[in-house]
Specification:
By secondary structure, the chain is α/β, with parallel strands linked by helices. The chain is built from 12 helices and 24 strands. Helix 10 links the parallel strand 7 and strand 8. Helix 3 packs across helix 4. The longest helix has 20 residues. The radius of gyration is 24 Å and the shape is globular. It starts with 6 loop residues before the first helix and ends with a strand. The N terminus is likely disordered. This is CocE/NonD family hydrolase. Keywords: Hydrolase, Signal. One of its GO terms (molecular function) is hydrolase activity. Pfam families: Peptidase_S15, PepX_C.
Amino acid sequence: MTTPHASPRRTIACAVCVALAATAALAVAPAATAAPVTTAAVTGAAPTTSFRFVDIPGSGGVTLKGNVLTPSGDDGTRKYPVVILPSSWALNDLEYTAQAKSLADSGYVVVSYTPRGFWLSGGRIEVAGPPDVADISKVVDWTLAHTPADPAHIGMAGISYGAGLGLMGAAHDKRIRAVVALSGWADLIDSIYSGRTQHLQATALLGASGYLTGRPSASLQQTLADFLASRYDKEADMIAWGRERSPATYVDQINANGAAIMLGNAWGDSLFNPNQLAAFYERLRTAKRLEFRPGDHATPEATGLFGLPNDTWNDARRWLDHYLKGADNGIDREPPVRLASRTGGGYESYASWRSVPSTTRKLLLGARDFLGTGSLGDAGATAWSTRIGTNIDSGADGGIIFLSQLADQFVKLPPIASIPLLPRSVAAVWQSQACTTAQRVRGTVRLHTTLTSTGDRASIVAYLYDVDALGIGKLITHAPQTSIDRTPGRPTSVDLGLFSTAYDVPAGHRLALVIDTVDPLYITHNPVGSTLSFSASAADPSWLSVPLRQN
């Protein structure tokens, strides 16, 4: 039980949890289906539940604060399936109260806990490092010893940090039979260091909230300092640190252990982009499911934290019921990839991630016209070169963390830019003819071009816009890329996958590709006074590959 002197801080923690969640709400051999649970009363009238705060011994003598919900009326002979809920980054074990109550009412033992280093839990923040992984097994041990838990039907679920911990648990503890990972990461490096570019706002937010609500470990403090200072001499150490904390590193272990994995994220997740999660999904060989919806980090599932109707949590519940209770609810027979377009139109289902686009349109980049805009189409000049300056924001950018994607989610207003007014001195622009039919972009847009920099470093950010008749562009997708320690003046091939998305471009609109060098979301690395040139030749044309759904 929590001690009396801890109550005020726990009350504050609860308030912060609710406030952050409210902000978010606004703002191939599959594993066998679990055998039906016959030892627990899982049908009929919902039982009342008991709630208690608990201290759970973690690894290394650390105490983890948590709470337990248990179906009441237990006669001591029943065993219930278990769901373990690690809290999100900077939040505590009260985060999931509404969902935990719903799960317990339907016959689950539910254990929520605050990971080490946050709030009242002991230790320091290890970012899913070995101590956190050891804690997961300790929580399972404690649950089996102190609750009427069925050892054959144990699952984990969580949002953000809790999602990553759930996937790490599936890799390192064979007792975990099902995982629901919402707004989590699979590859930490490809999340906040994609394109070898530091994601400034995301990292700063994580670091600041970690210091505010917990006690970062020495390794986290050093890694954050090196990362934000762009210490490329420490790059190998930072990558090794991140790989150790990435579920993708242990995908073979997850496959061997056989836990059923459900992944759910937002298209515009500011922390954990969809590309790294989709790549991880493709490598899974267990029972698996992948869902993408409009929004930002944790916003698709946010309303469910208040017990409100929520599609993400509905599917999460069905996943757990099937793989922990053996419920024949059909989720195992549905197409495993489920997407919602950012522009509306309901859900779409696919047999695999690779089958999401039914065709690919390859658009060639051409030379600039007298207005400074290059062509983007089926035919283009075979040899051309375009030069821009660096270190000045052109006005094209990916928006502001959380706020921009919340606007996209709720009012269909992504970051916008006036394409004709973008200064061609610091932005390279290519634009297509008006589309004769709607272009249903689905998947990963890819850019290929040749880059030459006058400096020894080069950072670019590529944007794809949906442009209306007035020249106003709505951002479809974007991504950064950085090259370090290169020879000035030497041409370099750029092959960049923009962040995956689902977006419908109306007939009559145009596509516009913009490349510049400054975005407030990222740390970019162009030397002062340097210029960048983009070019194409007959032997090596520049192009944009756009994945489309035609039916």
